[in-house]
Amino acid sequence: MIRMLPLLTLPALAACAPATQSPPQSPGGAPAAAYLALGTEPGWTLEITPARLNYDGDYGSTKIMVPNPGAKPSLNGRTYVTDRLSVVIKTAPCSDGMSDRRFADTVRVVAGGKTLQGCGGKILPPNTLAGTSWIFVSIGGVAVAKDRPTSLQFDGARLSGSAGCNRFSGGYAAADGNLTAGPLMATEMACPGPGMTQEATFFLLMAAPVSLTFTDDGSLILTGSEGRTAVLKRVI
């Protein structure tokens, strides 16, 4: 059986505000003092901490760790230069080449005589919600139950998913940093454990427009007028 939930309206994505200067941040949610970059073909990662540059290349077969020499300003960015490892970071949007995920910085690494291109810094918000898929991390400030799969997909002008129990779907609109959804239709299963509770909290949240916020690690936060939130992680 399918039931109709109260009308929900989802405002559209607002244009991103100009970025302000802040300490380097990792796209994977590492401490603010660390900066993470990555590349593909061959796969590599680079972590920059106040003390060290940690390079892991060739899918893990090459490892270089050197003291951090300190950043030197360069055109639209900064550089780090050592005998074994050099890094050039430019503030320019970058795609990792394996998904539609975009980063704030373009990164060039010279390691062991090999020059590699990649991306780093914070993960940029998607240009549009349409075509993106997410899983829930928490609803109403409570971590979602691990035994109940969750999802939220935006396909064209419709959204669908599960907040831990029933499947739901409906129309949505996103504008000016807000999201409005509905009317939403949902199946009527009863689920054991916390699945029903977290689902009810989500439906209550979505019963009115919510604001959209994207964090530096790419997470999406939906916030209602009473401060209730849902945190989602993008599926790449």
From TrEMBL:
Domain of life: Bacteria
Domain DUF306 span(s) in chain numbering: 127-229
PANTHER family for the chain: DUF306 DOMAIN-CONTAINING PROTEIN (PTHR35535:SF2), HEAT SHOCK PROTEIN HSLJ (PTHR35535)
Protein name: META domain-containing protein
One Pfam family here: META
